[in-house]
Sequence to fold (126 residues):
Amino acid sequence: QLKLVESGGGLVQPGGSLRLSCVASGLALESSAIAWFRQAPGKEREGISCINNDDGSTYYEDPVKGRFTISRDNAKSTVYLQMNNLKPEDTAVYYCAADGLFYCSGYATASNFNAWGQGTQVTVSS
Fold:
């Protein structure tokens, strides 16, 4: 059974950095595109980044472009989200998602993924 577990969240000051990890079990990581989503209080879950299964192509939504970097280590079955220059508006629960897309086309639509982690809280505040 596919399982995703996120970690690395926490409280950070504006301008700070965090690196989130998503460890997958029960799935060959290279068989699926992996995406990161986030959900702030009172808002819908939004896709922010994705990495292709084969060539490692990466995609970002405008709010995080240039500040966040997604990467994957298939040998460790882990996908990372390096978040730099964090802003208060980045405060949210962050989720990784897999199993549903082979490539990242359509990744920002949550219903395209069948497997989700439990989420990790990121709070950006002074």
